[in-house]
Amino acid sequence: MLTFIRQHGIPLWVYKASLLLAAAIWGMGTVVIKSTVDEFPPSWLVGVRFTGAGIILALCCLRKLQTRLADADGRAGHVRDGAILGALLFLSYWTNSTGLTDTTASNSSFLTTLYVVIIPFLGWFIIRKKPTAFNIVAALACVGGVACVAYTGAGAFSLRFGDMVTLLSALFLSLHVLYTAKFAPGRSMTVLTIIQFIVAGLLGFVVGAITEPTPNFANLSPDTWTSLVYLTVFASCVALGLQNAAVARVDPAQAALFLSTECVFGVIFSILLLGETLTPSLFAGFALIFVGIVISEYLPLRAERKREQQREAQKEASALEEADAFMR
Q1: Which of 1, 150, 274, 291 has its CA 20 to 30 A from that of 142?
Q2: Kindly report the CA angle at 124 between 118 and 129, in degrees rounded to 5?
């Protein structure tokens, strides 16, 4: 720890706090979208948010962008992969924003975070990695959580249209994460991020122009403009920067756990700012979903770390035995 601080000048807890701040920004983002989609249609919201974020990042990283795209082969690969990721990013945020027109911000926060549990099962087909027992237990916990969220009382269960669309957004977000991992080797993540932001934003404008009324930008309320700035600058650029800086230095198991608190922040902000109520059934559902996230993300990495420590201990023990035998 002291060596780290001397070399980098920043203690490790600052990076952990950065992950919590990023999670809080995204949790607040759900509340902001919920309060905005009635005045500003979902597709246009995605268009403004990601086009603006892509332009800001491109201006901040212009030299790196020019260098990486100077080579024809590198340019083609980055544009192709970035376009695929941009399409998945658009679908995930478009369905999420659309879902918020017919569900609560707290429901959206937890249902969207199910992507953490979906990823291992989709990864079986995409990157040929079988889910573990941890993943299966986590999935069962999350299914129970969704059932609690859908419980309406008197033995009846019902998921609203917005809830089902939000579950669809979790699926698209899972695909986005998996294909990001697949495309990342040999690519600049900064360039990929800029391209996918621009593609997602342009798709938002196209779909919005075809399916939704055009917002009257001249008559937007100050609150709506504030929401657009927050989603573009803070929920897209700042939170992403905090995450990228921290995940390179924080243990992956801890990083995943810190980032998963996004859904908790979403519920807290929705209760404080939107006046949403948390029924016993919803509380039980959210608790089960959060337990499933912890089981899926934190426990497997901790188990792997313990196995690695045991292997290192066995190597050291074997080396000592060999040295002892040699001395005899």
Answers
A1: 274
A2: 115
Q: How confident is the model at residue 208 (pLDDT cuts 50, 70, 90)?
A: very high
pTM of the model: 0.80
| pLDDT at 25 exceeding the cut of 90 | yes
**Mean of all residue pLDDT scores within the chain:** 81
User: What is the reported pLDDT for 7?
Assistant: 47
Strand partners for 157: 151
pLDDT tens-digit map of 114-160? 787 788 788 777 767 777 787 788 888 877 877 777 666 655 556 78
Residue 210 clears pLDDT 90, i.e. is over it: yes
Candidates 252, 294, 290; CA nearest to 268 is: 290
